[in-house]
């Protein structure tokens, strides 16, 4: 995926200013920067969620596999570029049905429960949750712990076999143990899906990211490997931010 000269404004306020950044397959890209610098807006634009905000306007191009995302049917785009939010938001239905939902929505023919069992379990396995819920697939998803609910949301996103997974501060509502589990999961997932994560947690970005984009006041100030951005930042602003001097 590639973002090219992207500018997004809410009314008069420019939230993302002329950003060009690649999203590479097989990698985790972390977007970091102080509050309000445009990370979430950039993330949400990748599958056109910013269109849901009436005041948002956009210029520049976003390409998925060389195709302009504006030319793709939006439901299909959101299956290929899938989003997991800050607060786990499973549907008020069983664990099984949460994941099956994504699969049922896919084809023209509605598969039955039997046919769905294998792909549902496969998505749960890839989200690192199957072992914990195997015997409780019919239990309400809302009875799971917060960390399990977040992995269920990841399983739901993975079920549609997306090419890109967008994670908006996925651990901010979780305890340290669940956070560690999800970080391990993200590192494994990059083999099957490109991951873009917004995080305030610089240690987290260092632990899991291959590339890092540092944003400030809507601009992409610096983009590089995690090692370079954290240990040899080129810009003074990046240096100040990663050393904890502001933000
Ligand atoms: N729906 C909206 N309407 C108007 N302004 C918005 C809207 N969403 C975000 N903004 C503004 O756009 C700018 C960028 O916000 P955004 O949420 O993308 O930043 P962020 O870096 O993700 O912040 P945070 O780290 O606090 O989540 C901010 O000034 C914010 O106030």
Automatic annotation (TrEMBL):
UniProt cross-references to InterPro entries, sorted A to Z: AAA+_ATPase (IPR003593), ABC_transporter-like_ATP-bd (IPR003439), ABC_transporter-like_CS (IPR017871), P-loop_NTPase (IPR027417), PstB-like (IPR005670)
Location of the ABC transporter domain: 1-242
GO biological process entries: phosphate ion transmembrane transport
GO molecular function, one term: ATP hydrolysis activity
Pfam families per the UniProt record, alphabetical: ABC_tran
Keywords carried by this UniProt record: ATP-binding, Nucleotide-binding, Translocase, Transport
SMART domains recorded: AAA
Recorded GO CC terms: membrane
Protein name: Phosphate ABC transporter ATP-binding protein
Organism field: Paraconexibacter algicola
Organism classification: Bacteria, Bacillati, Actinomycetota, Thermoleophilia, Solirubrobacterales
């Amino acid at each position: 995926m590639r973002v090219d000269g992207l500018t997004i404004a809410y009314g008069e306020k420019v939230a993302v200013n002329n950003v060009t950044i690649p999203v590479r397959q097989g990698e985790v890209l972390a977007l970091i920067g102080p509050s309000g610098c445009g990370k979430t807006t950039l993330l949400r634009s990748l599958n056109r969620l910013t269109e849901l905000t009436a005041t948002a306007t956009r210029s520049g191009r976003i390409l998925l596999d060389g195709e302009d995302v504006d030319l793709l049917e939006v439901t299909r785009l959101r299956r290929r570029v899938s989003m997991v939010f800050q607060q786990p938001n499973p549907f008020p239905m069983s664990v099984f049905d949460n994941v099956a939902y994504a699969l049922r929505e896919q084809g023209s023919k509605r598969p039955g429960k039997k046919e769905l069992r294998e792909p549902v379990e496969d998505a749960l396995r890839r989200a690192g949750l199957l072992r914990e819920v195997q015997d409780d697939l019919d239990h309400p998803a809302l009875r799971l712990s917060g960390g399990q609910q977040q992995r269920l949301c990841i399983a739901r996103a993975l079920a549609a076999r997306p090419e890109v997974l967008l994670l908006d501060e996925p651990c901010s509502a979780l305890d340290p143990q669940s956070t560690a589990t999800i970080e391990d999961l993200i590192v494994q997932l990059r083999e099957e899906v490109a991951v873009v994560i917004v995080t305030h947690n610089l240690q987290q970005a260092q632990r899991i990211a291959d590339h890092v984009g540092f944003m400030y006041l809507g601009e992409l100030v610096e983009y590089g490997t995690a090692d370079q951005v954290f240990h040899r930042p080129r810009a003074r602003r990046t240096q100040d931010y990663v050393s904890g001097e502001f933000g």
